Amino acid sequence: MERPAWAPEGVDMAQASPARMYDALLGGSHNFEIDRRAAEMGKALVPDLPRVALSNRAFLRRAVRFLMDQGVTQFFDIGSGIPTAGNVHEVAQEIDPNSRVLYVDIDPVAVAHARAILRGNPGATAIEADLRKPAELLAAAQETGIIDFERPVGVLLFAVLHLLGADDRPGETVAALHAAVPAGSYVAISHLTTATRPEDAAKLGANAADQSKVGIHFRSREEITAFFEGWELVEPGVVELPLWRPESDLDQHETPGRSLGLAGVGRKS
Ligand SMILES: C[S@@+](CC[C@H](N)C(=O)[O-])C[C@H]1O[C@@H](n2cnc3c(N)ncnc32)[C@H](O)[C@@H]1O
Q1: Contact 190, 241 (CB under 8 A)
Q2: In sequence order, what DSSP letters do the residues of the chain get, joined into one string?
Q3: Taking the CA of residue 102 as centre, how many other CA atoms within 13 Å lie in the half-sphere pointing to its CB?
Q4: pTM of the model
Q5: Does ligand 1 lie within 6 Å of residue 48's CB atom?
Q6: Which atom of ligand 1 is least distant from the CA of 81?
Q7: Is 187 in contact with 79 (CB distance < 8 Å)?
Q8: Distance (Å) from CA 189 to ligand 1 centroid
Q9: CB of 81 closer than 6 angstroms to any ligand 1 atom
Q10: Most CB atoms closer than 10 Å: which of 72, 133, 178, 187?
Q11: pLDDT, tens digit, for every residue of 27-58?
């Protein structure tokens, strides 16, 4: 298969990537055959899988609007993915055109596409960095000048911490981000869970391990809640994706009680 124009040189087209698999699940066009096959295998195991992705995107939009209601106008979106409808900068800049957004991803396709759509947008950019190396990530973020780390920041970790295994010490990474932002900052987290449908979680975890070098680590409610240590959880706490401050029926992509994702928002005081 020939490399499409949107794919940066050197990208491995024989290896599925979580960013492109997720894009395929959302019906996007920045994915390869191998990613579509992996997404199809996931759907064959758990047919409502695309609904989890939609439910997660709906939480992302509600969380950004909530943070803006709290006065946060700058966002540090880590594991931001391949841009799709309703991105953080679109939600934030529609409310306040001066909002600032720094997208971070480890996947070169995600970063290249984000840069392309952000051309001409002085308040937003994208960098390639690794959440597993928070010191380097924070240094690279400072260098962009997009975020003023003296003012409250919205740290966004949507559907990314479950791509980090225990050996990657995700809890320490979240703690490093907590230390880097001032009081009045927030963290928003969504995460795949074993809490609701443990059998489906096990099937998808095993499938991901087969399909890509990066595993998916479904975690319990307690493990996900532990990421908020040091942050003050805002109401309603860590809940299923569609139950976090739903605004309308459009937020109900998954049936409560069956959502494969948990979500929460915490404040640094
Ligand atoms: C499932 S997508 C989520 C995209 C977006 N945050 C959302 O919720 O719609 C997860 C993203 O995390 C990125 N990612 C995985 N491991 C990462 C790491 N160690 N550092 C930065 N990004 C990472 C992937 O490349 C992918 O784009």
Answers
A1: yes
A2: -PPPTTSPTT--TTS--HHHHHHHHTT-S---HHHHHHHHHHHHHSTTHHHHHHHHHHHHHHHHHHHHHTT--EEEEET--S--SS-HHHHHHHH-TT-EEEEEES-HHHHHHHHHHHTT-TTEEEEE--TT-HHHHHHHHHHH--S-TTS--EEEEES-GGGS-GGG-HHHHHHHHHHHS-TT-EEEEEEEBSSS-HHHHHHHHHHHHHH-SS----B-HHHHHHTTTTSEEPTT-SEEGGGSS--SGGG-SS-TT--SEEEEEEE--
A3: 23
A4: 0.96
A5: no
A6: 27
A7: no
A8: 12
A9: yes
A10: 187
A11: 998 999 999 998 999 999 999 999 999 999 99
pLDDT in tens, 57-94: 999 999 999 999 999 999 999 999 998 888 999 999 99
* Identity of the amino acid at 97: P
Q: Which amino acid is it at 32?
A: F
Task: Decide: 61 and 39 in contact? Cβ < 8 Å.
Answer: no
